Amino acid sequence: GENVEQHPSTLSVQEGDSAVIKCTYSDSASNYFPWYKQELGKRPQLIIDIRSNVGEKKDQRIAVTLNKTAKHFSLHITETQPEDSAVYFCAARGIKAGRALTFGSGTRLQVQP
Amino acid sequence: DAGVIQSPRHEVTEMGQEVTLRCKPISGHNSLFWYRQTMMRGLELLIYFNNNVPIDDSGMPEDRFSAKMPNASFSTLKIQPSEPRDSAVYFCASSFIGLSEGVGELFFGEGSRLTVL
Fold first, then answer.
1. B96: distance to nearest CA of chain A, Å?
2. Quick check: B42 and A98 CB within 8 A?
3. Which DSSP symbol is given to B9?
4. Fewer Cβ in 10 A, N or C end of chain A?
5. What are the tens digits of pLDDT across the range B23-80?
6. How many CA atoms lie within 13 A of B116 on its CB side?
């Protein structure tokens, strides 16, 4: 089935700096790539997603880029704030896995004030 | 809508006991997913249902795990007998899958934290 790898596993940045999290996927037929944010003790929540017919998508301070040829996609957070501290998961919908999402292993982002 | 509702929120049990986790998806969603989250393995898909029918249960660890969805508003995940390695947070999530779009936004419940002693 689909395999999603995510890096780095932990990331510490200073408030105001940018943060970048990268993911690769294995199923070239995957066509939907969401990012979820999970705060400590809470449920994962969607923050942004991108479909395979788009190369980049922005929503205020967050953006996602997709390179289908290389089979990787990235999350960019600019002007980070302490409330951005959380675990971020990328995911991909691989056809081989039916229509379910396969998640990356997560990145723990710590924004230092 | 109250969102995806899971119960219990916390469960502590002893090895060998039966555990039943419950989930009520968002009304109108046609797909329901059970995920397990651990530090070591992250978020793993256990099983998912579309229109109450199990579509992919390849993630179910072994025969000790079973899941049912008797109607569009209720699902259970059962572990019998439970073992310490089953300790994890179990998330239920629901979504609406369209004919061509595939999985839309996945809405997660609060999770059920299971501890097997």
1. 11
2. no
3. S
4. C
5. 999 999 999 999 999 988 899 999 999 999 998 888 898 899 999 999 999 999 999 9
6. 18
